[in-house]
Amino acid sequence: MIQRGPIRELGGHAPSQAKIVIGTRGSELARSQANLVMEGLQNRWPDLRIEINVIKTRGDDDKRGLVDTRAGRKGLFTGEIERALTVQDVDLAVHSAKDLPSRLTPGTEIVAVLPRAPVDDVLIAKTPSDLCSLPENGIVATGSVRRIHQLHWKRPDLVIVDLRGNVPTRLRKLGKSEWHAIILARAGLDRLGLARRNRKIAFEGNEFSAELLPPEIFLPAGGQGVIAVQMRSGDDRLKTLLDPINDVNTRLCLRAEREFLRLLGGDCNQPVGVLATIDGTRMKMRAQVFDSEVTSPRQAVLEGASGGAEGLAAQLLEQINGE
User: Fold this and answer.
1) Which of 93, 99, 131, 311 has a CA positioned 20 to 30 A from the CA of residue 29?
2) What residues are paired with 289 via a beta bridge?
3) The dihedral of CA 66, 68, 73, 76: what is its sign?
4) CB-based contacts of 250: which residues, under 8 Å, 6+ apart?
5) Cα(175)–Cα(169) distance, integer angstroms
6) Strand-by-strand arrangement of the 282-289 sheet
7) Running along the chain, 323 residues long, what does each successive block of 10 average in pLDDT?
8) Interior/surface letters 25-59, b for 16+ CB within 10 angstroms, e for the rest
9) Catalytic annotation, pick one of 60, 99, 120, 121
10) Residue 298 forms beta bridges with which residues?
11) pLDDT in tens, 168-227
């Protein structure tokens, strides 16, 4: 664990004996995200020694990860890492923010986030296709209940099948299956070096079409595109190390989105899209909530001061609920 000692405020150096341990999942994407945090810290604190500890989560286990979809998937990829944090096996936990339950393990907090990546969803298809040009009754795979409802909203003819596994596994499944397309987050593709080029993605000898889905329909999950760094509360020395890599606007937006989900009870696998953006001192929030018996979502947009993230989230929920 982090070895105690004074942290110099000036000069860009942590004490040479300082060492921290980062906990992360073992997928290629998760390790890439942990490396981004490590690089950010080492750029600011060149003398800091950092170790990455890979932790297997329930979501990584093929058998344990197969849960009733009605029960929700929040925490599947974070619970074991949070436990390692609380028992001090690791000093920091690095997560995809969209995987974190809106209520963190007591005694922990999100202390830093990296600048947000693009929040778009991407339609990856075997032949050039967008949402409108997918074949009638075409087969699309996704593991997201939000995306399922968004697809059925605009393309009720499509056949939706379940999709699990990390990003490379999902791309391999598309190449070997009879599916027409899958949906993935652009942030994960970019972080794995699979960015779209000429609206295509090359992967292991396959060339797939890659079209951004319209954001007014495919409003992202809360926290999508955000890398969150969690630590035990009250560790001021560690917080001092993390402050320089924290992106203030991204953290404000994440606070707003997570508060909206908390108030809504959005960890129960209810199909929800929510996105906060900041322009100067103003925050804009959009939300989209699907009810199981209704095809189209309840939607709302609200603007307010960026410093009032939680209050704006509460107002947005009132607007969504027609209060």
Assistant:
1) 131
2) 272, 298
3) negative
4) 113, 114, 115, 116, 226
5) 10
6) 272-279, 282-289, 298-305
7) 44 62 95 97 95 80 44 64 93 94 92 98 97 97 96 97 95 96 97 93 95 97 97 93 97 97 81 97 97 88 95 96 85
8) bebbbbeebbbbbbebbeebbeebebebbebebbb
9) 99
10) 289
11) 999 999 999 999 999 999 999 999 999 899 999 999 999 999 999 999 999 999 999 999
Contact 179, 140 (CB under 8 A): yes
Q: Report how far residue 2's alpha carbon sits from residue 87's, in angstroms, rounded to the nearest whole number.
A: 14
Coil, strand or helix: which one is 30?
Answer: helix
Contacts for 120 with CB less than 8 Å, ≥ 6 apart: 185, 186, 212, 213, 215, 218, 220
Identify the helix (H) or strand (E) that includes residue 20: strand 19-24
Choose among 222, 219, 216: nearest CA to 250. Answer: 222
Beta strands 121-125 and 206-212: pairing type?
A: antiparallel
pTM of the model: 0.89
DSSP string, 119-169: --EEEEESSS--TTTSPTT-EEE-S-HHHHHHHHHH-TT-EEE---S-HHH
pLDDT at site 68 = 41
What DSSP character marks residue 85?
H
Q: Which helix (H) or strand (E) is 94 found in, with range?
A: strand 92-96
Q: Is 91 known to be catalytic?
A: no
DSSP strand pairing (200-203 vs 206-212)? antiparallel
